[in-house]
Design brief:
Blueprint lengths: L3 E4 L24 H9 L4 E7 L1 H4 L5 H17 L6 E5 L22 H10 L7 E4 L2 H10 L2 E5 L13 E3 L2 H8 L1
Parallel strand pairs: 1-2, 1-4, 2-3, 4-5, 5-6
Helix pairs in contact: 1-6
């Protein structure tokens, strides 16, 4: 069985500017690149797990999401960081776009995206970490059986008492994993 670091996207890897979907908004959080480079040496797969309710709310399209994702992955790879996979949930119960308006099993804190990743990459949750800035990230990781780190890089900075560790940023988080 394999191991992975599940990473939330907006507020964890990149600055959360509210429905972040335009390439010109792509700015990495403090020490994100350094932290991910440090974690690279630990032989974990990097898997992004992200809620993207802006799609359901009509703020941006799946095409916008994929363009932003591709640019982010390109910039990360230019720094030697390869994202193994990225899973996203476009749904929201109060969405404006009918096909995305639903209660699903993939929107964090539910664990549908993590379960799909575990199936796709033969992951053992006990060997995995979930890193995110929101309590929903931490709850998803805990529910799946991962160890968790909450980073204080998001715009809301709501501490989750369930987190195994609290870190200032991804570089600080890397010390808990190594």
């Amino acid at each position: 069985m394999n191991k992975a670091i599940f990473l939330d996207r907006d507020g964890t890897i990149n600055e959360d500017k509210g429905y972040t979907n335009k390439i010109e908004y792509l700015e990495f959080t403090d020490s994100a690149i350094l932290g991910l480079q440090k974690m690279l040496r630990l032989d974990y797969k990097f898997i992004i797990i992200t809620n993207q309710s802006g799609i359901a709310r009509g703020r941006f399209t799946e095409k916008d999401y994929f363009s932003f994702r591709d640019e982010m992955h390109k910039r990360l790879s230019e720094n030697g960081i390869i994202i193994t996979a990225e899973y996203f949930c476009p749904h929201h119960p109060q969405g404006k776009i009918k096909k995305y308006k639903m209660n699903c099993n993939c929107r964090k804190p539910k664990i549908g995206m993590l379960e799909q990743a575990a199936k796709d990459f033969e992951l053992d949750f006990k060997k995995c970490w979930m890193i995110g800035d929101m309590p929903s990230d931490i709850l998803a990781g805990k529910t799946a059986g991962c160890r968790t780190i909450q980073v204080l890089t998001g715009k809301e900075k709501i501490e989750s008492p369930e987190a195994d560790f609290l870190a200032y940023n991804l570089f600080h988080a890397s010390y808990f994993i190594s």
